[in-house]
Amino acid sequence: MATGALALLFDVTPKAYFETVTVGSNGQSFVLEIFISFLLMFVFSGVTTDSRAIGELAGIAIGMTIRLNVFLAGFRASMNPASSIGPAIVKNVYKRLWVYIVGPVIGTLAGALAYNLIRSTDKPLRELTRSGSFLKTIAGDQ
Question: Which spans are transmembrane here (predicted)?
């Protein structure tokens, strides 16, 4: 819908098209999409589904992972098939779109699977480290 609104408001020429396009070969972009989607889902799984994670910092961890992914892949990175499919449908340009659909799906599935494989105990983090939440510790010091 956002792409449709922008296309209605502005005369978007093919040169100024706001799609996610590959830089380099399809293979390079495909592997990069898998890698950055893997990182994002791995961190997301850790901070949102694991009861041992420190919940107060979940947003910061996810935001910093997205920032790292943009640093690694540049602004041409998708990490979300919907952000590539929308502009492609609105402007009827489908070249190399498969990279931004298949890559993130494989990466997120692998990230979730990897996190579930390394989850070795059901004990809460507090029992493992014998300390409380980082933010509660800071608040208690005052």
Answer: 28-45, 57-77, 97-118
